[in-house]
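Problem: given the chain below (177 residues), write out its structure.
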Amino acid sequence: MRKNAAGMAQACTLLFEAEVPPMGYAAFTLAKRSAGRAGAGDPQVGARMLDDRRLLLYSDRYELVLDLDRGGVIVGLLDKTTSRDYAAAEGPYFLNERRGCFIQRETFLMSRDTRVRATILEQGPLQASVRLDGVLGDTKFQFTVRLGKGRRAIEVGLKTWFESDQWIRWPSRCTIE
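Solution.
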């Protein structure tokens, strides 16, 4: 939410659950509430640090664990509806790993070799999101992930800032250390 100099809301996004008919429209009213939130209790959507290196992002459908010491790779992706974990905590490949042969540096780089900084952007009750900021070689990157209550989709975004033209390729002719 953006506020003006007087502390009043200037611009914001309002997120709420609503029942909308399949055809036509519905009208909604905003009203002040004197008591606490209705249905407040254990949040179904949120984010929290498990320890100094792992961040948990959860919803009513998923539990997602990000390892901050290994570039924000996903080491746990539990689908609560099927009780199946889709991510490997160890191994040669990880979900959410950036990697490639940086030709100007003549080396193969992997984001798992760097630490990222995590910022919790949204914290329930309907959606939660986090942002991971890191550097791969000389290249800054920003990864965001969002989970929502009742949503099957996991929203992800990646921004990368290249200081100059970068040639990145698969390591067919690159030194892998």
